[in-house]
Amino acid sequence: MAEVAGRVITAALVVVPGPGDTVTFVRQERGPYAGWWLLPGGKVEFSEPVATAARREAVEESGCDLGELVLTGAYEILGPGHHFVMWAYRSERVGVVPERFSGHHVSAVRQERWDRLEPHPTDMPILNDAGAAAYPREMIADRLAREQIAMSSLLTGEAFGPLPVVAAAGR
Question: How much is the mean pLDDT over the chain?
Answer without folding.
Answer: 91
